[in-house]
Design brief:
767 residues; alpha+beta; Chitobiase, domain 2; Jelly Rolls; 5 domains; seven-stranded mixed sheet; 14 helices
Length: 767
């Protein structure tokens, strides 16, 4: 069976049996699909020769913080990637900088390297000191690859002899006007599913990517479920990249690639002559009039087949190859466990730093002022680290030992907050040089090991661990009667990949509603990476905007967890949603089940679209008439009344507790017009707006996001009973003292009764 072969290969946690069908060369493809009509040849040539210009700013290109170049730190690296389905026809660097007025123009310059090949030398003009100088450097497209590194080396001189590399006059400031400009043309791409998700999602594209999803008509819940699985898979591959999923009804996009969902009874016009399928099928074809544009066809006999095809594509993609694949089965071999999302740092065992590395050489640096070594720690938002002794971490590091005892040290920071620093010992390096003979790291005397405790109160869902090596060195001196110049030592440092951090032993407990956890990590729905405990309630009447909102939401959650939502459920049955033991996301207007919930802290009524905050304030919103009423004291009448007529869009994100299951949560993405849905999607794409979504209510407008924590609070997760008592009484010292005193009295009474019983027994025996 293919499922056992698939498990043996260890390529995924699912089994996929499939058969492959390729269209051999020389065979005629179905009419209207593979062979463009003769009249489209000119259009095809125009599309293929269309030039797309991309401009990349310095902030997007810089590797780390953009700093002023000087004599000791004279290199700035710019990195960028390119799409694989496009070829660069022309590229250049617009370099803008402000040099120090003390620089000598005949000796000072900037060397520009592209992938270690020199592209040009930019001189420094001393006739315009202190002003921005601009130069254009051509970049040879022949040296461009999918990943490119542009290196700028500053060579500065302020005198002919007796220079000090640390002199304050040696500097050059790179301007934010610096940019890389690329002219690209589309390339024909082979119809082979082995390259999927390319070209629909290209990890080399540094811009926001649009992946249209096309249907014959507005999809029903089962069809939209299949599309959600695929959008979440694309999101899991995209990671931090911004994805958009426009919804198309029976029409192709004006440009670019698209994904088409079609069963035998509901097919877009472009597929009306395409042969019907008798099993779930995935095919990759070209747009009829343009071979550079591709269509991914997700086909089936019905919507159930579409879901099977989407799940197979998400889980068994490494097995796909050729133009067409027919899926016989796609089953999960092993159920997901809570908090096992691939993008989350494991919390059930120690984690080695090698598991956190994202690219080769991440744990190594060089230079007197090397770039920081950073590691990302993505943790479940409900990890309970309140008032503990810290997160244990064992760090092993190596470095070029300093010649003497000085201020060379390693500094540790967490989320840009300083934790501690450690001196770099020169004695260890000296002994290592005398004993160096293919040494093991455990016996290398230049390897230092430190046991650290990370301050747990500073840990959030997204964290950055940062190691800064700084070396103190005497690089030269200049005096009127004596000139001495020393070359800086090629210092290097590294964090050992066997270092580890341990988050095991901590419970999961979080106060809710917490829209920040939802916006940044998809919690509580992302607790199960495959969203097997999530139910999405769709509007009674779907439109293109609400469909795109569902797809982008699933893509966003997939990007947070790194796994496709293959088990997510979609429904338009509100009564069924209220009765199920699941975390619920509803989209559109407030469902009746939530409106009747006693825990609802935001009610969106169908007549008038009114929004209420029962415990803190009142707020009423309608589509054509925005009427707002605030009350500082809910038990009294409103002290302020504001009547506003506005036609601008308004959306909201709300959170509340399930009325039937106390450990379950409901989150609503509330919108009614296409403009409202556009606000929702924009808020989740933009990192700044996502950060502003907090509390239990977040109102989204064109001007920004306003969040409030209103309504009743509840907790999800479990703690030991003593942790529960201590945590919930921590902000009530008098009650805590009373409980402690009562506990002491009860224990004393029990001891007294026990001793008295022992005394009676002893007296009765003596009698």
């Amino acid at each position: 069976m293919m499922k056992f072969l698939f498990a043996a290969l260890g390529m995924a946690s699912s089994a996929l049996a499939f058969s492959q069908e390729n269209t051999p060369a020389g065979l005629t493809a179905p009419a209207g699909i593979m062979e463009p009509p003769a009249s489209s040849a000119a259009q095809e040539q125009n599309d293929a020769s269309r030039t797309v210009r991309t401009e990349l700013s310095l902030r997007r290109l810089a590797n780390g913080d953009v700093a002023v170049l000087n004599g000791l730190q004279n290199v700035q690296t710019l990195e960028f990637t390119l799409r694989k389905d496009q070829v660069v026809t022309q590229a250049y660097l617009d370099l803008a900088f402000t040099p120090s007025p003390a620089l000598l123009s005949k000796l000072s310059h900037i060397r520009v390297y592209l992938n270690e090949e020199m592209m040009g030398v930019v001189p420094v003009d001393e006739t315009a000191p202190g002003t921005v100088q601009s130069h254009r450097v051509g970049l040879d497209p022949l040296y461009l690859t999918s990943f490119n590194r542009l290196r700028l080396e500053f060579v500065g001189h302020y005198t002919n002899i007796c220079e000090d590399l640390a002199h304050t006059s040696l500097w050059l400031d790179l301007s934010q006007k610096t940019r890389v400009v690329l002219d690209q043309q589309a390339l024909p791409v082979v119809n082979d599913l082995a390259f999927f998700p390319e070209p629909f999602l290209d990890l080399g594209d540094m811009n926001a990517q649009s992946i249209p999803f096309m249907f014959q008509q507005l999809p029903d819940a089962p069809t939209l479920q299949a599309a959600s699985v695929l959008s979440s898979f694309l999101g899991s591959r995209a990671a931090w990249r911004v994805l958009e999923f426009p919804t198309l009804i029976n029409s192709l996009p004006a440009q670019g690639h698209a994904v088409v969902f079609a069963d035998n009874d509901h097919r877009p016009d472009i597929l009306k002559d395409y042969p019907k399928v008798d099993a779930p099928t995935v095919e990759l074809i070209s747009v009829p009039d343009n071979p550079t544009r591709k269509l991914l066809l997700v086909l089936g006999r019905d919507s159930a087949d579409l879901l099977t095809a989407a799940q197979a594509l998400a889980l068994g993609n490494p097995l796909f190859r050729g133009q067409s694949v027919t899926i016989k089965d796609a089953v999960s071999l092993q159920a997901r466990k809570p908090y096992d999302a691939p993008n989350w740092t494991p919390t059930d065992r120690p984690v080695r730093f090698s598991e956190l590395v994202e690219y080769p050489g991440q744990l190594e640096v060089s230079g007197l002022r090397p770039a920081p070594i950073t590691l990302r720690l993505n943790l479940p938002p409900d990890l309970f680290v309140w008032r503990n002794n810290g997160i244990p971490m064992q760090v092993r590091y190596r470095y070029t030992p300093p010649a003497s005892v000085d201020e060379s040290r390693l500094s540790l920071s967490l989320n840009n907050r300083f934790v501690d620093s450690y001196l770099l010992n020169p004695q260890g390096g000296t002994r290592a040089l005398s004993d160096m003979r293919l040494p093991l790291l455990s016996n290398d005397s230049t390897t230092t090991q430190e046991n650290l405790l990370i301050p747990a109160l500073k840990i959030g869902a997204h964290n950055q661990l940062r190691f800064d090596f700084s070396f103190a060195a005497l690089v030269g001196s200049s005096q009127p009667d004596r000139c001495q110049t020393m070359l800086p030592v090629d210092t290097r440092a590294a964090i050992d990949e066997n270092s580890h951090i341990d988050f095991s032993g901590y419970r999961h407990y979080l106060e809710m509603p917490n829209l920040q956890a939802f916006a940044m990590s998809g919690f509580p729905f992302s607790k199960m990476a495959d969203l097997s405990e999530t139910l999405v309630v769709l509007p009674a009447k779907l439109n293109k905007e609400s469909v795109s909102t569902v797809l982008e939401l699933m893509g966003h959650i997939g990007a947070q967890v790194g796994y496709p939502a293959v088990k997510v459920r979609l429904s338009q049955d509100l009564s069924a949603a209220a009765a199920q033991d699941a975390d619920v996301i509803w989209i559109g207007e407030m469902p009746e089940a939530a409106r009747l919930s006693p825990n609802a802290n935001l009610l969106l009524q169908e007549a008038g679209d009114s929004v209420k905050q029962p415990r803190q304030s009142g707020l009423r919103v309608s589509d054509s008439l925005r009427h707002t009423e605030f009350s500082e004291r809910p038990e009294l009448d409103a002290v302020t009344r504001v009547d506003v007529k506005a036609l601008a869009p308004l959306a909201a994100v709300v959170g509340m507790q399930s009325s039937a299951y106390p450990q379950r949560s409901w989150v609503g993405l509330l919108a009614s017009t296409p403009e409202d849905y556009a606000l929702l999607r924009t808020a989740f794409r933009d990192e700044g707006r996502r950060d502003a979504i907090q509390g239990s209510v977040a109102l989204i407008r064109d001007s920004g996001v306003v969040s409030e924590a209103v309504g009743p609070r509840y907790f999800v997760g479990q703690l030991h009973w003593w942790q529960l008592v201590w945590f919930h009484l921590s902000d009530k010292p008098l009650l805590l003292a009373a409980v402690a005193a009562l506990t002491v009295v009860l224990i004393a009474l029990m001891l007294w009764l026990a001793l008295r019983a022992v005394a009676r027994r002893r007296l009765s025996k003596d009698a």
